[in-house]
Amino acid sequence: MLIKIKKASDVRESEVTDHGVYLNRRKFLKTAAFAGAGLAVAPSLVLPPHAQAATKLPGVMKSKYTVDEKLTPLKDVTSYNNFYEFGTGKGDPVKNAHKLKPRPWTVQIDGEVAKPKTVGIDDLINAHLLEERIYRFRCVEAWSMVIPWVGFPLAALLKMVEPTSKGKYVAFETLVDPEQMPGQVYNALDWPYREGLRIDEAMNPLTLMSIGLYGEQLPNQNGAPIRLVVPWKYGYKSIKSIVRITLVEKMPPTTWNLQSAKEYGFYSNVNPDRDHPRWSQRKERRIGEFLKRKTLPFNGYTEEVASLYAGMDLQKFH
Ligand code: MTE
Question: Quick one: which of 35, 41, 160, 181 is 20 to 30 A from 261 by CA?
């Protein structure tokens, strides 16, 4: 088994969480009843109003969804990035992302839901239990990393707004603001950056809304203040700096699929048996390692997600 799933009873919060902070957070969540009454904020846990990257995150629990593999050094995770809003080179985001202001920030959640909301980022964060999850992250360009993300399941956020039976897909959008995102003055992509998931993929417990990594708030270049992480899909599905989440009935358009549908399908599941038209996906280079390693189907998360695609032709629905 490639993913180490601990029983809840095996997970010691004390490994990462001050017990008092953890209990306070639990007590708050029990009483806030945020699904019906809107979002309240736990006073003791409110993040500083202009919190920036490198702000330590309080009350983070270890997750049972985590792999036991060597972490990619923080320096590589934060300096070798894809974030076209700051330039198309891997070194551009770390140079240019200081222009992004991750506070104040709101996320609009709307579409086929009973309770649409526009939520301030710190209210959203404080309404959820935060977990650290170490995931493999496989880019379509055949490199990979192992990253300790901090976040909460997308399913928890979706339950808050109560999807209707017509909410069959979830569409995501990144901020558009060329003043903050200088790459948006060029037409490298069609802005806003968009992504989408089928509702059952969105509700899968592995699907994470990340607000931090290595125990601290997300650096801007990694998608501050909130991004998606879908570990069994190629990295481009993990959309950064999200401002809108919309439940929709039909499969939504997605950025890379619009660029080249043959190269980038809607599903984008990591699949060593389906070559990208311009290169093989059989192997990957883990950043920091010299020798390539074999790419695993669903990036090693087969046990958790293969059933979502039972009976589908994964060459056609790539
Ligand atoms: N999200 C936005 N808004 N813009 C982007 O250019 N690039 C994607 C994804 N999310 C991208 C994005 C790609 S191609 C990858 S591989 C990952 O972000 C990279 O995430 P990282 O820089 O944190 O490793």
Answer: 181
Tell me, yes or no, whether 28 lies in a domain.
Answer: yes
Ligand 1 close to Cβ of residue 34 (< 6 A): no
* Cβ–Cβ < 8 Å for 47, 126: yes
Q: What is the amino acid identity at position 49?
A: P
Mean per-residue pLDDT for 188-215? 98
Residue 184 lies in a domain: yes
Alpha-carbon span 115 to 93, nearest angstrom: 35
| pLDDT per residue as tens digits for the range 122-154 | 999 999 999 999 999 999 999 999 999 999 999
Q: Kindly tell me if the per-residue pLDDT of 259 is higher than 60.
A: yes
Please give the Cα distance from 250 to 258 (Å, whole number).
16
Distance 193 CA to ligand 1 centre (A): 10
- Signed CA dihedral, 44, 46, 48, 49: sign only: negative
Number of domains making up the chain: 1
CATH code for the domain in which residue 46 is found = 3.90.420.10
Closest ligand 1 atom to 234 CA: 16
> Is 25 close to ligand 1, i.e. is its CB under 6 Å away?
no
pLDDT at 174 over 50: yes
Entry pTM: 0.88
In a domain, 210, yes or no: yes
Mutation test residue for ligand 1: of 94, 240, 257, 299, the one with most atoms within 8 Å of CB? 240
Q: Which domain holds residue 158?
A: 13-309
Q: Does residue 2 sit within a domain?
A: no
**DSSP label at 158?**
H
**For ligand 1, atom 23, which residue shows the shortest CA distance?**
222
Residues 216, 220, 225, 226, Cα dihedral to 10°? -90
